[in-house]
Design goal:
By secondary structure, the chain is α/β, with parallel strands linked by helices. It has two domains: 5-67, no CATH class; 72-337, Alpha-Beta Barrel (TIM Barrel). It is built from 14 helices and 18 strands. It has helices spanning 18-26, 78-83, 102-110, 124-138, 154-167, 182-189, 213-219, 225-233, 239-245, 269-287, 304-313, 322-325, 334-342, 354-357; strands spanning 5-8, 15-16, 32-36, 41-44, 48-51, 60-67, 90-92, 114-117, 144-148, 171-175, 193-194, 200-201, 205-210, 253-257, 294-298, 318-320, 348-352, 371-375. The strands form four sheets. An eight-stranded parallel beta barrel has the order 7-8-9-10-13-14-15-16, surrounded by five helices. A six-stranded antiparallel beta sheet has the order 2-4-3-6-1-5, with helices on one face. β9, α5 and β10 (171-175) form a beta-alpha-beta unit. α3 (102-110) packs parallel to α4. The protein starts with a strand and ends in a 10-residue tail after the last strand. The structure holds flavin mononucleotide. Flavin mononucleotide is lined by residues 93-96, 99, 118, 120, 146, 148, 173, 175, 209, 257, 260-262, 298-301, 319-323, 325, 384-385.
């Protein structure tokens, strides 16, 4: 192997062997210098690396390869971290009935992550109580609430949006949508304004979570004119909001939700994310959006390796669900944590989402599917999941 430069030892001596190299690869905050030690390659710790065709000085060893540090906070898309004021490009997905609890949202925000409170399945007064606690404990740290499509309870969706607008919730995870709805558009468009420099500001941010290309396309487009006209006629939005809404996408970011513990369509991550990235590029060019639309990936991410794979595929951020359900902060029971800790890969299978069971959704449907993973032999679930 040809040398790319030279390495000079500092306080620590170089180490040899596979274990030393593996250990160095896991220290992601430090650079790695692979050096030629004569009979074998070694890992240089600390010291000074000089890259380039320079003459060797006494005590220098040939440098075979150099890997710069890569801190987890430098992964993904910096636009995403900046826009949502995060340290890490890492989202904790909403889990219904406050499984993603106030405690979990708080711990995540304080660690520099973004978490969505699991509002689905809760009555409005309980959601309001959670907002109250989060605003008291977190202000000004970022947090979000789940806005879940409720096909069987449209009034609940409207009431939830009204609550979010009344209490100043500025970020929602819009999930389980098969199409855009009037309450969702009301949330996105309310308060939209043009700044003196000409830029358009949407005070209410939306991160959509979808598994299907045709639904993703709607979130990557401005809201339909007809729906804006209806909302204006109903007095839910004003003329300026309706006009400016045509210049921005429905969502600030879209999470591609691959096969997962949530609503899913049996989509493999490895093909879903590239499809969404290509769609994002096409929609941004078509509509001339000025701000970058970030695309993240969720579904099956639970280890450093799967997180690294998602970022290698081009994810702006990653979203996790199941892996958080076993945390102490999760709003669940010790029995569930124990069952999850003991569950193996073959212990989970696809099941229809409870809220969509009545619609005839089955795990294998190809149209309007929205299954969810359930523990085999577990008792029937209550709430929307
Ligand atoms: C128990 C459970 C409940 C969930 N409830 C919701 C929910 O109410 N709203 C939602 O948007 N996603 C929900 N999800 C999906 C997660 O937010 C996330 O998208 C998904 O779990 C990611 O895939 P993973 O489980 O493979 O990590 C739920 C997931 C689980 C495991």
């Amino acid at each position: 192997m040809k040398a790319i430069g030279w390495w000079r030892q500092g306080e620590l001596a170089p180490q040899t062997g596979t274990a030393a190299l593996q250990e160095a690869l896991h220290r992601v905050n430090d650079s790695i210098c692979l050096i030629d030690m004569g009979s074998e390659a070694g890992v240089g710790r600390g010291g000074t690396a000089t890259i380039g065709p320079i003459d060797a000085a006494a005590g220098h060893l040939p440098l075979l390869a150099y890997v710069p540090p890569l801190h987890p906070q430098d992964l993904g898309d910096p636009h995403f971290r900046k826009r949502f004021r995060l340290r890490y490009p890492y989202v904790i997905g909403a889990m219904a009935n406050a499984i993603t609890s106030v405690r979990m949202v708080e711990a995540s925000a304080k660690a520099g992550l973004l978490a969505f409170f699991g509002a689905a399945g809760l009555p409005v007064h309980q959601i309001e109580d959670a907002i109250d606690q989060l605003q008291q404990r977190l202000d000004p740290l970022p947090y979000g609430m789940n806005l879940i499509h409720s096909p069987n309870e449209p009034d609940l969706e409207t009431a939830t949006v009204d609550l979010y607008l009344k209490t100043g919730v500025r970020l929602v995870s819009a999930s389980a949508y098969l199409d855009l709805t009037l309450p969702l558009i009301t949330y996105r468009v309310t308060g939209i304004r043009r700044e003196p420099d000409g830029s358009i500001v949407c005070p209410n941010q939306v991160i959509a979570k979808v598994s299907r290309v045709e639904v993703a396309r709607r979130f990557m487009s401005p809201p339909p004119e007809k729906m804006l006209a209806r909302l204006q006629a109903q007095g839910r939005i004003n003329a300026e909001e309706a006009a400016l809404a045509l210049k921005v996408p429905m969502a600030d970011a879209v999470t591609a939700e691959a096969d997962s513990g949530g609503h899913t369509d049996n989509q493999p991550a490895i093909s879903l994310l590239p499809t969404f990235l290509a769609l994002r590029d096409a929609m941004s060019a078509q509509h001339g959006f000025t701000r970058p639309l970030c695309i993240g990936l969720g579904g099956g991410i639970a280890t450093p390796q799967s997180a690294a794979a998602a970022f290698s595929l081009g994810a702006a951020y990653i979203l996790t669900g199941s892996v958080n359900q076993a945390c102490m902060e999760a709003g669940t029971s010790q029995t569930v944590r124990q069952m999850l800790a003991e569950a193996g890969q073959a212990d989970v299978t696809m099941a229809p989402a409870a809220d969509m069971f009545e619609m005839g959704v089955t795990p294998n449907s190809t149209i309007f599917t929205a299954g969810t993973k359930a523990l085999r032999n577990s008792p029937p679930k209550t709430g929307p999941f």
